[in-house]
Automatic annotation (TrEMBL):
The protein, known as: TetR/AcrR family transcriptional regulator
Keyword Ribonucleoprotein: no
Superkingdom field: Bacteria
Taxonomic source organism: Niveispirillum cyanobacteriorum
Record has Ribonucleoprotein as a keyword: no
Entry-linked InterPro entries: Homeodomain-like_sf, HTH-type_TetR-like_transc_reg, HTH_TetR
């Protein structure tokens, strides 16, 4: 029996048959943009390649020249989204490193940055997370993206290791990210069709999660 991770690993970076330049490249980009817009507008993947063709002003034939199926196209969209988000994550970590003068400041800045990062990307993350339940490639790419975020955040939080009061700093930092991510993901409706709170709730949620996480890291014990 083939392990699921082994089965999907070769497909984690699908690109379609990507052209390098000229009008073919422009057409390819319109396909990706159209599919992304449809995912965001509908909140799921309930659209056909004919919808992509109409939105992107490309022919069905040109889509099939680049992608074997709608699945392939959506996987290529996710790869593009993940690349953009990785760039955003790197910028976020840079800001945290530059402006954080203590553990408390670092953690509260991190919580604020993570919240707004997820909120900006929520419109496309929601349909991708819904699709992950049935698409092992999308699921594996999402897992890989999350693991990359964990690695970056862990390194940043542990740069203040001497200020962490928890007897297991690595575990405490991992739990801090998991708790913050889960709280914001739930509010933003990841795995569902929309937001679950109000603007006032969002502001309070960010503040309270920041307080809880910084207090936990400074004073947590077992």
């Amino acid at each position: 029996m083939v392990d699921e991770d082994q089965e999907v690993e070769p497909l984690l970076n699908p690109t379609g048959r990507e052209p390098k330049q000229g009008r073919s490249r422009a057409s390819f980009e319109r396909m990706l943009a159209a599919a992304t817009d449809l995912l965001i507008e509908r909140g799921n993947d309930d659209f056909a390649l004919t919808d992509v063709a109409k939105r992107g002003k490309v022919s069905i034939g040109s889509i099939y020249c680049r992608f074997d199926s709608k699945d392939d196209l959506i996987q290529a969209v996710q790869r593009r989204v993940m690349e953009r988000m990785a760039d955003e994550e790197a910028e976020m970590i840079g800001r945290l490193t530059d402006k954080s003068t203590s553990l408390d400041v670092l953690v509260r800045n991190f919580v604020e940055e993570l919240a707004e990062f997820l909120k900006r990307n929520a419109p496309v993350l929601r349909p991708m997370m819904l699709r992950a339940s049935s698409d092992p490639v999308v699921r594996a790419m999402g897992r890989k993206g999350y693991d990359s975020l964990v690695e970056k955040v862990m390194s940043t939080l542990l740069s203040r290791r001497d200020e962490i009061g928890h007897e297991l700093p690595e575990l405490a930092c991992e739990m801090t990210l998991r708790i913050a991510y889960s709280a914001f993901a739930r509010y933003l409706g990841f795995g569902t069709v929309g937001d679950t709170g109000t603007k006032a709730d969002w502001k309070n949620l960010k503040t309270e999660v920041g307080v809880m996480c910084s207090t936990y890291l400074r004073n947590g014990n077992r």
